[in-house]
Amino acid sequence: MTTVITFPVQGEADELATASGAPRPWTVRRIPVTGYALTGAPPVKLRPRPAPVPADSETAPGPGTLDPPRWHSDPADDSRVDAIARSVTQAALEVLGGTRPLQQMVRWLDPASFERLQLRANLVRSRAVPGAGGRANSPRVPAPTPARLHRQVLIRCCRICPVSEGVYEASVVAAEQNRVRAAALRIELRRGLWKITALEIG
After folding, report:
1. pLDDT (tens digit, 9 = 90+) per residue, 154-176?
2. What's the confidence (pLDDT) of residue 126?
3. Among 13, 56, 76, 106, which residue carries the largest CB count within 10 Å?
4. Assigned domain for 28 exists
């Protein structure tokens, strides 16, 4: 079923309104619409992407427009941190071996790392004392062996990784007389001095 709605022409509507004394009715005027196809909406036109601009071009964007420039560490700081990581690792292993005093590590370690190394050195020293876990007159206690005057510690390799400005992480492999050990360090620049803020020895 189809419903057809018809509207009076403007002239006839004015005559009917004048004869009956009623207000003029609403009329509809046709407004031509252009720019649309009979089959539907006009197609969407995509804008072509601009061609990439080479980096050496004069019209290239500045360094802060797209991506910030990557941070690169100073080679002088890299060599300094590498030497510190090697020296501190060797010194820490010598402290655990009993051939170096712990007070020499105050300059390089922060308070938390110094306390942890001190606690570990005390534990190692207590285990190395003959008869520490038994009675003094026990016949099963082995005879004390002469302590070694020098415990050789050789640094095999060291790798540093700059995290941010003034912050480095390093991994060190050291060889002792009987085994090879690994150490991980975090080195930070504090008030102009390089400090070890984390020290883990395997």
Report:
1. 899 999 999 998 899 999 999 98
2. 83
3. 13
4. no
In a domain, 56, yes or no: no
Which 3-state string (H, E, C) describes the chain? CCCCCCCCCHHHHHHHHHHHCCCCCCCCCCCCCCCCECCECCCCCCCCCCCCCCCCCCCCCCCCCCCCCCCCCCHHHHHHHHHHHHHHHHHHHHHHHCCCCHHHHCCCECHHHHHHHHHHHHHHHHHHCCCCCCCCCCCCCCCCCCCCCCCCCEEEEEEEEEEECCEEEEEEEEECCCCEEEEEEEEEEECCEEEEEEEEEC
Identify any residues that bridge with 172 across adjacent strands, giving them in sequence order: 158, 183
**Does a structural domain hold residue 44?**
no
Work out how many domains the chain is built from and give that number. 1
Q: What percent of the chain has pLDDT over 70?
A: 54
In this structure, the chain runs to a length of 202
> What's the pLDDT at 170?
95
Q: Is residue 141 part of a domain?
A: no
pLDDT score of 124 more than 50: yes
Q: Which domain holds residue 174?
A: 75-127+150-201
Q: Which residues pair with 180 in a beta bridge?
A: 175
**Which two three-digit tokens encode residue 161?**
């990784």
Looking up residue 180, the CATH number of its domain turns out to be 3.10.450.240
What are the tens digits of pLDDT across the range 18-63? 666 666 556 556 656 565 555 555 666 666 776 776 666 555 555 5
